[in-house]
Write a structure and sequence with these properties.
By secondary structure, this protein is an all-alpha fold. It is about 80% helix and about 0% strand. It has a single domain, classed as Four Helix Bundle (Hemerythrin (Met), subunit A), CATH 1.20.120.50. It binds fe (ii) ion. Fe (ii) ion binds next to α3. Belongs to the hemerythrin family. It comes from Aquipluma nitroreducens.
Length: about 100
Amino acid sequence: MLEAMKQGQANAIITQTISEIERYAITHFQKEEFFFQRFNFQGSAEHIKEHQDFREKVSSFKAELRTGEVTLTIELLYFLKDWIDHHILDIDKQYSECFRQNGLK
Ligand SMILES: [Fe+2]
């Protein structure tokens, strides 16, 4: 995305990135939430709330993209960096022991 911004191609890349993020959210969140229920994971309510907030934020990015909001790319980069640092590298790790104990690798 940074390279695309430098070359003035941000909107094309951002549209593609948002589609990929939506696809990731649909498949990945569904799998996690399925196993939360199946294994009765204790932290599921807070975790599912983060997924929902993520979906809503992605929807608002899509709406901003349609209006040509210029700060969108930087905002999206920060949002994704925060998602990776906070959710994937921290929050998602919290269910790994529960999943492992239930036989999931
Ligand atoms: Fe998650």
